[in-house]
Design a protein that fits this description.
- The chain is of the alpha/beta class.
- Helix content is 45%, strand content 16%.
- It is built from eleven helices and nine strands.
- A seven-stranded mixed beta sheet has the order 5-6-4-3-7-8-9. A two-stranded antiparallel sheet has the order 1-2.
- Helix 1 crosses helix 2 and helix 2 packs across helix 3.
Length: 236
């Protein structure tokens, strides 16, 4: 029986990683899995796996491990994936088109049921399996299609406006890909993914990993190909 303990946000963020790994194990016809094997596939440590799964009321069996089918069922249940979540994509540009055609969404329990754009050349065109509607019809379409999640792929300048419109129409979850921070009313869940920021963070680690490998004689002065003082300004 599942635990009634509140699941921490950090654990919730790892549940999809476990689910993906478990589905891979299931495809390999594994019926049980150890915490060590699941941790290796999910990219965490075994102690973290055991602690996270304890929130689901699953403690495994010593010498046997965890039942794969049970964990897949329980994680799906906790993530609310017992039925397909209905999704709208707002912004029919290249990113919106790519998401609309991404087979990983239905495979993971999400169904794109609507798409919107304010460009007259995009309105009426297909986006995946749906037809792009004008932004002016968002309230009507979102209500009619019972949209639960809106994915925002608009330019930054339009993001807050469409978030406001979507939440006013009853959407309770927003996934924002627009390169700007948006705000939502109380009771609405928001996840923000800025690809540029993620790349900048990776660039930071690449820069500092490279710097850590520079010999002391080079590190003491300007780096080759940089303006004198640039390295100090990064570090400081």
């Amino acid at each position: 029986m599942a635990s009634v303990r509140r699941i921490p946000q950090a654990t919730v963020a790892r549940l999809p990683l476990y689910l993906r790994a478990l589905e891979e194990f299931a495809a390999e016809r594994a019926s049980t899995i150890s915490s060590e094997a699941l941790a290796a596939r999910a990219g965490v440590n075994a102690a973290q796996v055991r602690k996270d799964l304890s929130y689901l009321g699953s403690y495994g069996t010593r010498g046997v491990g965890y039942d794969v089918a049970y964990l897949v069922h329980e994680i799906n249940r906790q993530l609310g994936l017992g039925e397909a979540r209905r999704v709208a994509i707002v912004g029919a540009g290249r990113l919106g088109q790519a998401l609309g055609g991404y087979g990983g969404l239905p495979a993971r329990g999400f169904r794109v049921v609507a798409a919107f754009d304010n460009d007259s050349e995009k309105v009426g065109a297909p986006l995946g399996s749906v037809q792009v509607s004008p932004v002016s019809q968002m309230a009507e379409v979102i209500s009619g299609e019972r949209v639960a999640i809106a994915i925002v792929t608009t330019p930054a300048s339009a993001a807050q406006m469409v978030v406001d419109a979507a939440t006013a129409a009853g959407v309770k979850s927003i996934l924002n890909f627009a390169p700007t921070t948006v705000s939502v009313p109380a009771g609405v869940a928001l996840r923000q993914v800025d690809l540029g920021i993620e790349l900048q963070i990776l660039s930071f680690y690449q820069e500092h990993e490279a710097a850590s490998k520079i010999s002391p004689s080079v590190a003491g002065g300007a780096l080759p190909g940089t303006v004198p003082g640039a390295a100090a300004s990064i570090a400081g």
